[in-house]
TrEMBL record:
Keyword Transcription regulation among UniProt keywords: yes
Pfam families (UniProt xref): Bac_DNA_binding
Subunit annotation: Heterodimer of an alpha and a beta chain.
Function comment: This protein is one of the two subunits of integration host factor, a specific DNA-binding protein that functions in genetic recombination as well as in transcriptional and translational control.
Region feature (Disordered): 84-103
Keyword Ligase: no
Family annotation (InterPro entries): Hist_DNA-bd, Histone-like_DNA-bd_CS, IHF-like_DNA-bd_dom_sf, IHF_beta
Family label: Belongs to the bacterial histone-like protein family.
One GO biological process term: regulation of DNA-templated transcription
Protein name as annotated: Integration host factor subunit beta
This protein's GO CC annotations: chromosome; cytosol
Species this protein is from: Roseomonas acroporae
GO molecular function (one): structural constituent of chromatin
Keywords: DNA recombination, DNA-binding, Transcription, Transcription regulation, Translation regulation
Length: 103
């Protein structure tokens, strides 16, 4: 799913909101997550997962074309850890709701 598809689905599910407002909401959420990660903060969305950064140490890599040794600088990379509820839903183990009848 692309960002524009997400916006379209949210706009269809919430007809009381203008598509431009939905676009602004989604963009704001993504921008805030990005800014928090850039500051080194962790972002946790209960039931969905947590965004954080992991530090990669400097290392000696190899140029794939020549095989020559290349120094690779250390860097921070974004990391996502899915929450329990998300993992269960993705794996088809959705929790049975009290109103749902067994299949």
């Amino acid at each position: 799913m692309t960002k524009s598809e997400l916006i379209q689905q949210l706009a269809e599910a919430n007809p009381h909101l203008r598509p431009s407002d939905v676009d602004l909401i989604v963009a704001t959420i993504f921008d805030e997550i990005t800014e928090a990660l850039a500051r080194g903060d962790r972002v946790e969305l209960r039931g969905f997962g947590a965004f954080s950064t992991k530090r990669r140490d400097p290392r000696t890599g190899r140029n794939p074309r020549t095989g020559a040794a290349v120094e690779v600088k250390g860097k921070a990379v974004p990391y996502f850890k899915p929450g329990k509820e998300l993992r269960e839903r993705v794996n088809g183990q959705e929790k049975a709701t009290p109103d749902a009848a067994p299949a």
